[in-house]
Structures are given as structure tokens and as C-alpha cells.
Amino acid sequence: MTYRPGGDDWFRRMRMQEAGEPQHAPLPGKPLGGKAYGSIPHLPGSNFGDRRDRGVPAGEDRLYLDRPHPGDRVVVMEKLDGSCVAALKKDGEILPLIRNGYPAAGSVWRQHRMFARWVRAKADTFAACLGDGDRVVGEWLAQAHGTRYDLTGREPFVVFDYFRGDRRLPALEAEDRVQAHGLAFVPVLAAGPEGLPVADALLLLGEHGHYGALDPAEGVVYRRETPDGMVYLAKYVRPEAEPGRYLPGNDDPDRAVWNWPPGGR
Fold it and tell me: What is the pLDDT along the chain (265 residues), one digit of tens a residue?
């Protein structure tokens, strides 16, 4: 199966939802002063999807797939397919954010406002998990983008990164921390000092991944964690993936495909 765009302009619709556009009124300021999360470059052979996507620098793929630097740890995780969001603890307050750094409660998109309400309901959990200035970033799976999920018995928000200020915690430390407070962490497929070829990572992922995907899982994310605390990221999206194919052209809840809650609204 070859790549087929999902509809008239799926990438624009997806980016609009990630960014909180269109803006019918000015949104409040960004609590972080910038984005809550950036973009991850692609490994060779990954489905770019759009010309604005970028690949890893030439030769860098070997550091993930073959031979990392001495002392590095390579962590491979399932790539979930939803909306990238974050929960920030600032001055003792828990703030739900969308990817571009604006408050989720001010988004024109229903799925982001749902996330804001969900975080408020779990404010005590986030307050216990996060130090002041910390944030968790993850995938909000309430609305299907390119992959549908069965979230029965699963959380709709799945953490994949933990920031202490501008520094990422190592993946396994982040996993232990968020799970200790009852939050979900993205499935970790492998972790160790050796690189992992994409073919082997996809075997570990399996057709439907490990978080209830009803469609084929989208792909994998690689993290290369260095001894000096730096973290480098790369992703591989399956060539047959159809990003954004379930997104409607607007925020009509009757046209959207909902993974959560039951009934979707």
C-alpha cells in the first residue's frame, strides 16, 4: 500500500488543530514564552507527509540505528497518533497547553478544550508528579487523527517526555516518575547501549502497537540519551501511514471520529 493523503488538505487541518488555529479571538499569552514542544526529524525512509517536515542530518541516522557514541543510551518508543499537548506546573498552578504553547482552554478545537477539562479534573495528580517549572508532554488521543484507538481501560493522555525546565529527564526515569503517580507513559520497545535497526523496531512494535490501536500503528520514535544529559530525537513513520485521514475539515463533533470518551463528546 502506498501513501495516500487523507482528504483535501489533511496536513493543514492537522497543523491547525495542533496550533489552535483558526483564531477567532486573541489567545492568552504563552506561559512558557514559546512552544510547549518542537518537531522531531525523520529517519531515512520515513513518511514525511509534508514538505515542511525535515530529516535527520546526513549520517546521523547511524547513531540511532547502528552505532551510538560510547556511553549513549538508545530508547525506542511507540509513536502514538493524536494531538501533542502538555501539562505545566507554574507557580503552583497546573496549566494545560497545546503544542504551540498557548493554553488549551482557549483553543477553538473541542479536543483541546476536552484536554483542559481533563487536566483540571486531575490537577492533584499533576501537582504531585510535577516540580514547579516542570512539564509533561504527551499525546492526547481523544480524537482520531490518522489512527483509531480502543482506549478501554487506558488513559486518553499518554506522556512521552518530561521536562525539568529546559532539560529532558531520561526516558526510563520519566516513565518511572509518571507511572508512580498514575499517569500513562508511551510504550517503550527497547532501551540499551546499542542502536536498533528500523526493521527490528517495527518487529517489536507489531502491526497494532501496544496501546490499543485499531489501525496499523503509525511508527516509532528513537531517543539518543548522552552521558552529559543531552537527548536527541528521531522518528520513523511507516510509509503506508495516512496522517490526518480521520480529521474533519472543521470542528463539527458529528463528523469527528472519537476514541474517548464513550460517545466522543
Answer: 222 333 344 344 444 444 444 444 444 589 999 999 999 999 999 998 776 789 999 999 999 999 999 999 999 999 999 999 999 999 999 999 999 999 999 999 999 999 999 999 999 999 999 999 999 999 999 999 999 999 999 999 999 999 999 999 999 999 999 999 999 999 999 999 999 999 999 999 999 999 999 999 999 999 999 999 999 999 999 999 999 999 987 778 788 999 999 655 5
Whole-number Å distance between alpha carbons of 160 and 132: 19
- C-alpha–C-alpha distance, residues 48 and 57, integer Å: 15
- Rounded CA separation 17/20 (Å): 5
Amino acid at 250: N
Angle 154-85-32 from CA coordinates, rounded to 5°: 145
Q: 193: cis peptide before it, omega within 30°?
A: no
Residues 6+ apart with CB under 8 A from 46: 55, 219, 235, 236, 237, 239
Kindly state the DSSP code that residue 223 receives in the 8-state scheme: E
Q: Determine the 3-state secondary structure of 53 from DSSP.
A: coil
Whether 214 contacts 150, CB under 8 Å? yes
User: Rounded to an integer, what distance in angstroms lies between the CA atom of residue 49 and that of residue 126?
Assistant: 34
Give dist(CA 264, CA 143) in Å, integer: 8
Kindly report the number of other CB atoms within 10 A of residue 41's CB atom: 18
Domains with residue ranges and CATH for the chain: 10-20+38-237 (3.30.470.30)
The predicted model scores a pTM of 0.88
Residue 99 DSSP code: T
193-206 core/surface letters (b: 16 or more CB in 10 A; e: else):
eebbebeebbebbe
